[in-house]
Structures are given as C-alpha cells and as structure tokens.
Amino acid sequence: MKVSIIGATGYAGAELLRILHNHPQVQVMHLTSESHTGEDIASIYPHLRGIYMQHLMSMKDMDKISADSDFVFIGLPAGHAMKVGLALEDTPVRIIDLGADYRFSDTDVYEKWYKVKHTHKNAKRVYGLAELCRAQIREAKIIGNAGCYTTASILALAPLAKNHLIDINTIVVDAKSGVSGAGRSAKLGNHFPEMYDNFKAYNVGGHRHTPEIEQAVAALSGEPCVLSFTPHLVPMSRGILSTCYARLKPGVTAEQVDAAYTSMYGGEYFIRLLGRGGYPATKEVRGSNFCDIGWHIDMRTGRVIALSAIDNLVKGAAGQAVQNFNIACGFDEKLGIDMVPMYP
Amino acid sequence: MKVSIIGATGYAGAELLRILHNHPQVQVMHLTSESHTGEDIASIYPHLRGIYMQHLMSMKDMDKISADSDFVFIGLPAGHAMKVGLALEDTPVRIIDLGADYRFSDTDVYEKWYKVKHTHKNAKRVYGLAELCRAQIREAKIIGNAGCYTTASILALAPLAKNHLIDINTIVVDAKSGVSGAGRSAKLGNHFPEMYDNFKAYNVGGHRHTPEIEQAVAALSGEPCVLSFTPHLVPMSRGILSTCYARLKPGVTAEQVDAAYTSMYGGEYFIRLLGRGGYPATKEVRGSNFCDIGWHIDMRTGRVIALSAIDNLVKGAAGQAVQNFNIACGFDEKLGIDMVPMYP
Amino acid sequence: MKVSIIGATGYAGAELLRILHNHPQVQVMHLTSESHTGEDIASIYPHLRGIYMQHLMSMKDMDKISADSDFVFIGLPAGHAMKVGLALEDTPVRIIDLGADYRFSDTDVYEKWYKVKHTHKNAKRVYGLAELCRAQIREAKIIGNAGCYTTASILALAPLAKNHLIDINTIVVDAKSGVSGAGRSAKLGNHFPEMYDNFKAYNVGGHRHTPEIEQAVAALSGEPCVLSFTPHLVPMSRGILSTCYARLKPGVTAEQVDAAYTSMYGGEYFIRLLGRGGYPATKEVRGSNFCDIGWHIDMRTGRVIALSAIDNLVKGAAGQAVQNFNIACGFDEKLGIDMVPMYP
Amino acid sequence: MKVSIIGATGYAGAELLRILHNHPQVQVMHLTSESHTGEDIASIYPHLRGIYMQHLMSMKDMDKISADSDFVFIGLPAGHAMKVGLALEDTPVRIIDLGADYRFSDTDVYEKWYKVKHTHKNAKRVYGLAELCRAQIREAKIIGNAGCYTTASILALAPLAKNHLIDINTIVVDAKSGVSGAGRSAKLGNHFPEMYDNFKAYNVGGHRHTPEIEQAVAALSGEPCVLSFTPHLVPMSRGILSTCYARLKPGVTAEQVDAAYTSMYGGEYFIRLLGRGGYPATKEVRGSNFCDIGWHIDMRTGRVIALSAIDNLVKGAAGQAVQNFNIACGFDEKLGIDMVPMYP
Questions:
Q1: In a domain, B334, yes or no
Q2: Fewest beta carbons less than 10 Å away: which of A182, B101, B227, C212?
Q3: At what angle do helices A107-114 and A209-221 cross, to 10 degrees?
Q4: ipTM score for this prediction
Q5: How far is C280 from chain A (nearest CA, A)?
C-alpha cells in the first residue's frame, strides 16, 4: 500500500516513519510540512538520515498526494484535518487522522471543547480505538484515531463500564504523560532545565481528551457520563500512566471485575492483562504498541482503581494508527507493529 | 541547642545535616548508625566531606547521646523510635521522630497498618504538622513529625475539611513522589536504568500514609474519614505533588473555597497559595520548606481539585522537623529553614 | 536458524530478545540463567510478557542446548564464556560471545586486564566488529563480539589510524555511557536518587576496554598503541558518545581526513557519516544499530577530534551480535536490525 | 551592603537571588530586565514568590540604581556589561560582571573570540577566580567573574601548571555541563524531549571559554598555552565535570603531583581535594560553592588526568560572584555561601 503523511514533522509523524520503515506492506510516498516545505525530512529529524530521503511537500499539492496514495495519515492541529478530509472526499484515498477532527460522533461536543467550527459533519467516519471499534474500522473511509490519554483511559475503564460494575458518575481519571505528548514546539515550560526533575498538573477540568473519554464510557455503559480528568507532565520523554478511580456498584465482587477484564481483552494481543493487583509501568511498554492493564479492588473505600500504561506515541498515536491501517487493509493486525518494548 | 540524630544515614538524616549546618542556634553533637557504626559520616555521604567530621556512633550509647543533647531527631524504621522514646522518657531530652511511631493518636490504627506492636502507648506526643498543631508542639516532649505524602495531602485538604465544604467520603488523593522517598537501599526497582524514563503506581489501597491523612481529615472535619490514596513513583530525585479530588457539598461556591484557603493559610510563610486555578510544580519548591497550593473548581463534575507540591525531604521530612524544633524551642519558625527553592 | 542465549538475564540478553523477536530467520530456543533457573523470562523482564514464554534453563543442560541450537549467544561475566566455548568445541554449534573472552588475539593481554586465566587459548576465534572484520566473521566458529565503548571508539579512530593521519601515541579517548552499561545489579552508586542529575568518571586509566581499543588501533596502523581511555557515567539509560583526540601528523589536511572516513565507511549502512563539523547525539541512534560519526579539525592545536555515538546495547552489544550473526549465516547484514532510532 | 542585579532574569541572576536571600550583610535593592521591565520577578520565576517582591526595572534607570547600590552584579550578554562599566566609572559603585567583558587582560583575545568590539579597554579590572586572584580582588573596582567551564578547568590544572609538572601543549580538556549552562531561552535543541536521555558535544574547537583557560594556564606556568577544549551537554540541570589530560614532564612523580595540589589548595575551604585516585561527582557539589578535585596518574601513558566538579550556577557563576563580593568587602569569604550540597 502506498501511504503519505500530511503533517509529518510532529512527533507522531516521526513515530509513523519509525514504524512504517519496517512494515512489509507499506511504501511511504509523500511527506508534507507547511513550515518546512522543500526541506529534507532528515534535516528536521537527523535520526532519520540514511533511512528516509523524502523532501517535504506542501499539502497544497494534494492532487499529487492523492494520486500517489492509497492511504493518508494526518498529523495536523485541530481543524486542519477536515480540510484534507473534504479534499479527498471523492477520491478512493482512505484517511487515518491522528488528530481530533473525526473522533466525535456529536460534532457539537467537538466544537465546544476545541473552539473550532466543524466543517465536515457528514463525514463517514469511525472512532479509531482498534480493540473497541474493529468491525467499523474495516470498511471506514475516515478513521479518527483515538487520542493518547484517551486510549489509555478508555481501555482501563471499558470492561467496568460495559459490564455496569461501577457508578459512572464517580469516575476520576488521574493521568500522567511524558513530555513528548506536548509536541515539538520549544517553549519555556518544556525547556529542559525547567522540566527536568519537575512534576506538575495542567489543564485541570479543561483538557480536550475529557469529552472523548466520556463519549466512549457513555457508549459502553449506555449511561451519560461526566467525569474528572486531570493530566500531569512527567519528566520523561514518552509514556502515559492512567490511574482510574470509580466506586463499585453495591454487591459487585472482585471476581466479577476480573472476569470483565478477561472476557473483554483475553484475546487481544496488544492488551496485556497484569491481573488484579498488577502494576503496569510505562517503561515496560515503551516503544511498543502494548497497553498494559492492572486493577485493584479497595474494599475499605468500595472503589476499583484501574491502571493502564501505554507509549503515548505508539499505542497512543502512530502505532494505533498502523493497527487501524492493518485492520482497514485486511492485514494481520500485528503487521509492522509487533515491536518488543525497549527496555531499559 | 545541642542536637543529635539517631539513624543519620538515611536521606532524611542527610537532609537534616544539610539544613542544620546553617541553623544559627544548633550544634550537631552525635550521629548514629547501626550498620555503619564507627565510620565517618563523610564516607557514607561524600557530599558532606569537609563539613561534618563526626564518626557514627551506635544508638546503644544512648546515655552519652542523652547527656550531650537537648534534642534528638530520629530517623529509624517503624517500631524503633519507640525504643528511643522509652529510653529518654525520664530525661530532659526532647524528641522529634521523623518516622511514624508517634504520629497516631489511636495506636490500634498504627498497629494495624504498620504491623508493629506499639510499646509506648502512653507517650506524651503530638502530631508534628507545624501549621496545624503549632500550639501543642510548643510544649511537646515527643513530636511525631508528619509524613511526606501526608504533609502535602493534609495541607491541601485541610481548609476544605475544616470548613465542611466537601463530602468527606468522596476524597481521592492521587500522589506522586520522587524516588528519594523510597529510601537509600539499592534494589532492582529503583536501579537507575529501571526507573529512568519510567512511571508507575505502587501500594494501591495499602500505603501506610493513608490512615495518617484520614486521621487528620477526620479531626478537622469532625467526621469519620475513609479515603482512597494512591502513591506513584516519578523518575526524579525529590518532590511530591498531591492531586486531591472531592465532591463539593451542594451550594458551595468557588468564593467559599477561596476564602477557606486564604483564612487558614493567609499568614503562613511556608504555605504559598497560588490561588484558584494555580498550578504548583515540584521544582518550584525543591530544596525549600515551602508547600505550594493551588485549587480548581470543576463545575461540570461538582468537584474541587486541590494540588499541593512539597520537597519530600524538606517540608516532608527534615525541614518540617526543624520547623517543629524551632516552634518547640520558641525560636523564629523560619530559623535555618528559609532556603530559597533551588531552581532550575 | 535456531539460536539460544546463554546468560539471558543481563541487559544485553534482554536486548537480544527484543531484536530477535523480529528477525525473520531466527527461532529462539533456549535461554539460561544460573541465578533464576526455572523461572519464566517474563517474570525477570515483565516487558517481555506475552512475547516470550521460555522458562530459564541452567547452562548445565548444555547437551540439550547444543542439540537444539545452530548458534548460541553468550552473555556471561569474564571467564565463563570460555567454558561454553570448550564444551561446544566439537559440535557444529557456532558461538557469538558478547563478553571479552574471545576478543583478544594476545591472551596475555586478556589475562593481565581481566585478572582471569584464559583456558581456551587455541580457540578459533575472530574479533566481532562487523565493519572491520567482515571477511573473517563469515567462516568463524567463535566470534568475540566487540565491546560497547570499544565499538564506538574504534570506529571513530579507524580511518585515522589506518591511513596514518595521526600520531598514535597522542590518542586520548574520553567516553561517556548511559547507566545500562553498568549492568542490572542494583548497587548504591547506580541507585536512582544517587545517579539522577549526576555525572562522574570511573576507572580512570584502568578500564578493560582500553587494551581492546589499543589492539584494534595497533592492527590498523601497524604501530604499537598505548592510549588514554576514560569512561564516564551519564544520567541516562542508553547510549555512548566517544570523544577521541589525536594530533594530526605534520602536513595532513582536512581533506585527507574527510577522504579517510568516506573511503572506509562510504558503503556501510550502519555507519552514518555526519561529515567534518558534524555532531552525533546518542538519542539519534537510540534503539538502533547505527554508529554516527562526525569529526573536527582544530587547526589551532593541530588536533583532530572525532566523535561517535552508538546505543551501547545495540551496536555496542546485541545489535552488533546479530549483525555478526547475519554475516556468519550469509544473510543480508541488515536482517532484523534495521530499526529506526527511537526518537524522541 | 546594598546590591543590585543588572540582568536578573537569566539563570545566574536567579541563582544570585537564591544565595543573597540568606546573606546576612546584603540588601537586594534593584533588579533589571530589558525584556520584562515592569514585571514582578516572581512572575518570571515563580519559585521566588513570597520571597522577592521587586518589580523589574530597566537598566536605563542607571542613575537610580547607582545611587542606591554599593555593588552591582551584572548578568548580561557579551558586550553589554561594558556599557554598565563605563556608566559607573566615576561612581563609587563596584562591579562584579558574571559575563566575559572584563575577564581578559588582552582585549584582542576577547574581540577575536567574542566577535565584539571592546570599548572599555582601560578598565581597572581583575579576573574573578577567587582562589587564584584573592589579593587583587580585595581592592578591585571591576571584577570579571570567571566562567563556569573555566573555573572547573583552571582549578583542576592550576597546580600542575604552576609547578611545571606537565607539558603545556599536551593539555586536553574534555568538559561536560548540565543544560542550565545553555541559558533559559527555549530552543529546539534544549526542548525537554530532545535533550532527555541524550548526550552530545558542541562547539568543538570554538568555545569561548577556551582562551580564558589558556590565559590562566599561561599566567600560572609562564609559558604560552594552546589547548583543546571540548564542551558537552549532559541531560541534567546543573553541574560541570571537567576531565583534564596532560602529559607529565619526564621524571615527575605521583608524589610531586599530590604535593602540588595539597600545597596550593590545602587551606581552601571551597576546594575539596579527593586525593590521588579520587572521583568527584557533580551531585556531590550540587547547589554548593565547592569545587571537588581528584587526580590520577596513568603510568602506562605518562599522563595525569585531573577531574573537577562544580555546580555551574554556584561556583561557576553566582556563588563565586558572592565569594568575590565577600573578598572585596572584607567579609568572611564563606558568608552566605556555605551551603551544604543538596543531595540526593
């Protein structure tokens, strides 16, 4: 399959290039960047020297990109992927958007949280969290790849929500991310000496991944969902750990919780269940497409605490995009993304 | 004042030495270590070379220590400080225990969580969280210095609990600590290559600081308190950030929350209020005795999210111990601990 | 090819498992560990759960290992690989030793620096630095895989030495390594809080990689070589940067230096020449088998300063081992090791 | 003494504020910043909230600054301190410049390396490396505070140079610095995800600290000095380790080397000699004004390798500035800078 990347110079784009280089069914065609048009990708990312030779194109050359591509991956700021979606609407090119433009079934929610007008409301789109939406992804024209915090959080909560084991309105998601999640733009807050040996929260009550988690939990449980989500920055490059709290419904047993995880994920290669009492660690999934999940029943408080770890750039972005691509192409889902975590 | 440190080779002991060197009213007399008796403190902590010349004594020489000291600081594992407390009971020596032996008014709670028999139940002891217990500390024979996670968490929750602004049984405390909090014993989990670029939770539902926070919240609110507390390890040396969630009682306004913090802490030098919407960062308190606090009202979920940051070895251990010492001695509370945070 | 790993629980062993999982011509048969015999490899390295199911055997079961393997990789402390080499001498099994037992043509040098008696002096062995010894590796029974510091340092110095551009006795190699190079044994010096935000030298004048670099430089230049080598620990997991100084011989021009690098490495995939004035960075090769090299001519001092960066666990250990394996098997040299560096 | 800081918003300025807060003889009067004039210092450095209340002035208000100050510290880019020096020439205000404008006795050298015209060539200035220039500092009008790399490197080399123990033209200085040395301006190379888990050299053969080291070595030895100096960036906030190589002159013994260090530094509080075979570590001096030095005699190569560690912002900038200030004021040299290193 011929693929191109629109907006290739963000960290997710670079990670796609890392992964696609070893995908046996992929030929990377074009890469675009509006701020670096004409430059060599290896001058932007020197670690790619000797591996990728492409010069960066402008997305204005969409006709050429469209003609040369079976699939495009999009890594653009909110509001811009829709332009690509509209431009490719009548072409056979299929789309995986790593941004948020196509993640919401209710575009009013998108507009409210992203402060961007949605201009492609009737797009044929599916939500791109592979383990939960596999069937729809197969035929999709446009896949709205799930976000990083959301992938970790939804996968941790899904068995609890789907099986009605928790009181939905008690959910608290306390999430922690490596700094690559904040992107590649240099700014004071993420200047090395400022962030090293430092830890802090940000966007309390207002992070845009909140409604995406709520959408998924509501769909799984059949109940409306309003939850607390708090992101934090960890002084490390990659990785997300999501700590999810919820009150168990009266009478729910630890065994029921165990069974919910096992039955939902027992057959999933990329979800590794560490069991009740298990402790995922971001380093144990670093560089891989795995999501490790453990859960704890705290009888004193009546709460379940579910923990999940992913690499934000792999299962939280580029890896999941390729997983969705594999599903959409009918390939083995593991093709090109069966990397062993890089440890230590 | 002549002071000695019983159990001086842990990180809290080393931090005491850092602080006491610049305390104008203190002369450090004896240091003990059972595993390094007879060695030079600077051979254990080379950063102290040229500053401290003491040889490490055994705590078996308690008579000499007692005779030469007005105050002893204790940095021993759970269960061992009680031995010192008993040995010094009929002496004029006053005690600040950096461990947990003297933190609990109900020793049954201590015994249950620490799995240690309490042998000094009738000790005249006070809880050593300076801002909350100042009056009692003045006259105390034995001060049970507050724990690290607990100091951060209690200071964040206290105004809410005391003013009955939150539903006590909805409290969730999600706390994150630098690795120095795990002590100086080398073990695989904290081996540099294992913990670097890594993040994980531990002791979910079972950490010993849980009942200490519950004790304080219950005392402040007058209601029994059972809460969720989850500690995490951050790949950094020092610092704790505590993210505290609770549901506001119906009708509570943001202004009431603001007022609770301001009225309780407005006059406290070591508590810096960042206000509603503020984001404390561990690096902004590193090396200092400050506790920075910010709070957020999330109207969507009806929750308040309070954030606090401390240096676990200073305000969470040695700094607070010296603050308590100053109070107990009638000194200016800031004496020797008015360090500016070390940034960056 | 069926391969086994003798001594699989060190970091190099774990890295071999990471790499071999995606090697299309390899089936991993047996893994051994004397300290963890009988345990599951994923209990020692949880990041491997779901990927490797092997139980760890003892190397005492060498007959079974030998019968089931075409190749064995050895990751044992100095002196122990020789036992395996002797045991497999009359079998068709071929050996790649990641340790030092088979790296020296002069075993007296080995014995002097390693303080270990060499018991397999007549072994048919070749030095396993792929770019320099490719021809001999093809037919080798035993390959003494080059060390980590040595790979980086020799590759930086080789064009200079081979082309007689430098005064050999002025070579100074100042090398810096991530902490994984010190192995997985937890000890105080590499305890996270001790090594984080810390930098130091060790083993000045006495590191065992010194004679290995000297052996290679002497062989390339045809002159005896005694050089200074100083290793340092960098507070990071992986990566080596080697800064190599030498005085240029009178009259040597910058263009001659450029030509030496280009002619020697122009066709090498795994050596990426950054050119005169280039600055390799460890992160740009992290997780990959690349060695990035830049060089600088300082006319003021008459010195050339050559810089090289590798991932100590890949090109400095497991990746190079697989590269040597590919050569020895007649496979495409890149098979299974054409990983893109993991950035950021 | 009343002091002001011209250019207070760089890391050295912030570190001066940290130190001066606890200096018993100092009152901080004015702080300037051209880019943040009118702002509160604590809005630029939130860790200072509650401690410093100053609003940032412009250096255009030099008359007021001059009238209110006994001393000014300057933290400005090359070329700008001279303007202050000229403006204050006929005032009683004394100056400590943390930049390079007043470090060179030969201003041609300054102009060549800094590409800046020197406009204050006849300034009465002294070089501000306290241990070497104490006598001149006492009476100085303008003190050109020594640079960070240079302080570490010169202190390591001085006893060797002064006692003619080494061949001056064989000196190689391989230095490593934490990222705070690169300043507070956010740029891609020091963006957290780019520099974390990364190590690299920069400015090979061209770093401006080179001639400053050469000037000092030449002055001490009485011989012209041209040496190699290579700076590297370590993924940590603070600290410099300098590894200095030189060939011993024929017949020089290890004991002579030991004696050179002991006789030169035996009475210096801020220089801690770790002896022959000693290994300084940056963390053991972090936050303090100490310079730790160890040295190694490598008989195989005939070289001495001297190692020194400092905190680049303390002994390498603000701490040394206050040490010079103390000397210039006739105070105890340790006043306000006798901080214990912050460990771990």
A1: no
A2: A182
A3: 150
A4: 0.97
A5: 9
